[in-house]
Amino acid sequence: MNDIIPIDSEVTTFSEYLNNNCRGILSARFGDGKSFFLNEVKKQLSDKYLFLTIYPINYQVAENKDIFEYIKRDILLQILMTSEIDFSDEKYGFSLRLWGFFNQNGKDLVSDIVSLVASSLANIPQDAIKVFRDNIAKFKNFSKEVGHSQSDSIESYLDEFASQKGGIYEFDPISRIIYQLITDIKENSGKQVILVIEDMDRIDPAHIFRILNVFSAHWDMQDYSEQKLAHGNPLNKYNFDKILLVCHFQNIKNIFHHLYGERTDFTGYIHKFSSSTPYEYSLNDVIEEWILQKIPFSKDTFSAICERLVDLIMQKYENCENIITNIRHITHFLNQSNYNIRKENIPPYSWQNGHNGFNYFISTYNQVTHLLCILENFEISIDEFLDSQADPFYRQLCQFIGQCWLIYPQLNIDSNSSKCKFRFSNCINNSISCEWSGYQATLPCKSTKVDTNPILQRFEIKWMQMDSISHSSYLKELFPQQSYKTILSFFGDYIY
User: What is the pLDDT of residue 232?
Assistant: First the structure.
């Protein structure tokens, strides 16, 4: 489970938002992990809610007045793909009304639905498909027998609006079918049904506000009773318990002002749909924390270094969606067992004269080479990593390099600005002295004796504490920025 990004707390918070709003807006930027988040929401809240999701971005070529015909079609398809409708029920009214929908709209949907049912819904009895076809004949007789009469002029007047295809108050036979199906699902499953409308900010601007206008203005014709209105929430179209728009809210606002002018009241307009503020969501902070915890260095001692790595890794993947897609690779890249380091013991030496006689050595397998492996895995250059002007970063990096600085005075450095201005002593009693310009600092270290010869003693230096230098006023003089690149580049040769 180490390659799963934990978002349980965010799901819990969003669940409270859903519970308190019958119409809501989930706002997230493109690439902020919205799809991953919604999938987790649907999974974790499946006992309470049934989510029906439609994608109006597919309607780009449609006329504005036809948008709700496409929406109704997609809602029906979503209902057919749930397991909440019992197609083996002996009631044949559903099949009749569904066929009426196909017949009314002149769309060749019969083959679509039948093939969808046959190929995708294995749990639906095969005789349900036969019912579709058998009821075509029944429908012809049924439609002759069933008539519609108006009880009075008020009902007739209201029905004119209800029968207008695509009107904001339309409640035609197909809408009634959807209404009844949603009602049946709620009664049979005990779940609330949520309509999720995806990518609202990526569709034709006219479609955006057409959809908002219809859902904002709607009060179902079957739900005008005072008893149902007394609950305090506006009733949603098609009897959905909740409607959730998914978009980047600022984009919707920008489009609105572009169409209607900067001084037009967007807040008042959007409050017709939902009076609560949008739920702003981004996985960015969650993913940053997840990556931070995966980095194998002390977050307390080397916080600036760890945060620098997180920033660079986030930049490499550009957005949260790409990180989620590559989550196993990221876990692999940060796992120490996957570091490719050539293990050698390095005594302090000069390029010309070899071993210089000091009584210690260091291993190439250390946190500096671990850092370099991470940079290599994520294709981050040393220059990119060091491109920071923050003093805390370099103070921590001086401490981070630690015992690896023991190599630095012996390197062949051509640049005067990088020329080493200090030297180290032998290791005595778990400490090494650093001397420069008449000054001296004692650096505690962890040393392990590797020779039993009492005369020729050699120690492996596991770590060396640089605090007395890294927090001193001499830091920039002794360790200019180029020195960090020099020492990192040297150890980079041990990475393969």
Answer: 46
Using CA atoms, how far apart are residues 87 and 181, in angstroms rounded to an integer?
A: 12
What long-range pairs does 48-51 form, CB within 8 A, spacing at least 24?
A: 48/191, 48/192, 49/18, 49/191, 49/192, 49/193, 49/194, 49/241, 49/242, 50/82, 50/84, 50/185, 50/189, 50/191, 50/192, 50/193, 50/194, 51/194, 51/196
CA distances to 290, 316, 341 from 493, in Å: 30, 23, 9
192-197 vs 431-436, strand pairing mode: unpaired
Q: Could you tell me the two tokens for 60? A: 């780009």
Determine the Cα angle at 255 with ends 254 and 261, to 5°: 80
Strands 279-280 and 23-27 come out as parallel
**Nearest one of 263, 219, 381, 392 to 312, comparing CA atoms:** 381
Q: How far apart are CA 287 and CA 424, in angstroms?
A: 42
The rounded distance, in Å, linking the Cα atoms of 321 and 68 is 30
Give the amino acid at 359. N
Query: Dihedral through CA 231, CA 235, CA 240, CA 244, nearest 10?
Result: -100
| pLDDT over 50 at 215, yes or no | yes
SS3 282: coil
pLDDT tens-digit readout, 39-55: 999 999 999 999 999 99
How far is it, in rounded angstroms, from Cα 445 to Cα 458? 14
Compute CA distances 91 → 88, 97, 136, whole Å: 9, 11, 15
- pLDDT 10s digits, 155-205: 454 455 455 565 555 667 778 888 888 998 999 899 999 999 999 988 888
Residue among 344, 323, 342, 345 nearest 334 (CA): 323
Please measure the distance between the N-terminal and C-terminal CA atoms of the chain and give it in whole angstroms: 29
Topology adopted by domain 8-84+148-280: Rossmann fold (3.40.50)
The residue count of the chain comes to 496
DSSP 103-158: HHHT---HHHHHHHHHHH-TTS-THHHHHHHHHHHHHHHHHHH-----SSHHHHHH
- Where do the structural domains in the chain lie, given as residue ranges? 8-84+148-280, 285-492
Report whether 25 contacts 249 (CB < 8 A).
yes
Helix (H, G, I), strand (E, B) or coil at 51: strand
